[in-house]
């Protein structure tokens, strides 16, 4: 399968997303980030994620942690978790931070799909930056895992999707979208601005 063929993997249309993406729903859930206390709930969640990176530990823990982590081979992942806990919330809040651009100027629909697409774009930029680093692959793995943990949290807590088989199907579908988007953006980055622009607006 060629790169041009693989890039379309993530753009399949699935009926399973209809309820999640529709702005017309009979379910009593808040569909928009700015409705009710949804924005506050999201901000609280990201504050908690960010706070983990600055957590303070007793002195004896600080003394034994480095050699123990090295012995167990978890130093890189621990450093990666700390970094991603600071980076990810910034990516995930871009739709809200720049609402006047994405929603008002670009006329993107104010729904879950837009949040996912904008966040995926910013994650891709971080992924590209991490790639040449020594432990970039580990950092990117943690970043993508954090993203899809958030995808599930938003579906279940903000959009009323019950955990289980339906949520799993949604996540698989969004994972396909994410992979397709990353391949399309990579191709545009390597080839031309026109291809990258087409990938952004597809």
Structure explained in plain terms:
The chain has 202 residues and is mostly helical. It has one domain (3-201). The chain has helices spanning 3-6, 18-21, 38-53, 59-72, 75-92, 94-97, 99-105, 112-130, 136-158, 165-190, 193-201. Helix 5 (75-92) crosses helix 9 (136-158) and helix 9 (136-158) packs across helix 10. The longest helix has 26 residues, at 165-190. The model is unreliable at 1-36 (pLDDT under 50). InterPro entries: Ubiq_cyt_c_chap (IPR021150), Ubiqinol_cyt_c_chaperone_CPB3 (IPR007129).
Topology:
Layout: H1 3-6, H2 18-21, H3 38-53, H4 59-72, H5 75-92, H6 94-97, H7 99-105, H8 112-130, H9 136-158, H10 165-190, H11 193-201
Helix pairs in contact: 3-5, 5-9, 8-9, 8-10, 9-10, 10-11
The assembly state of the depicted protein chains is single chain
**Could you give the distance between the termini?**
21 Å
Poorly predicted runs are 1-36
What fraction of residues sit in β-strands?
under 5%
Largest sheet: none
- What count of domains describes the coordinates? 1
Order of helices and strands: HHHHHHHHHHH
Structural class: mainly alpha
Q: How many strands appear in the DSSP assignment?
A: 0
Q: What's the average pLDDT?
A: 74
| Number of alpha- plus pi-helical segments | 11
Shape: globular
- Rg for CA atoms: 19 Å
Helix content range of the residues, please? over 70%
Pfam family, one: Ubiq_cyt_C_chap
Protein name: 3812_t:CDS:1
Family: Belongs to the CBP3 family.
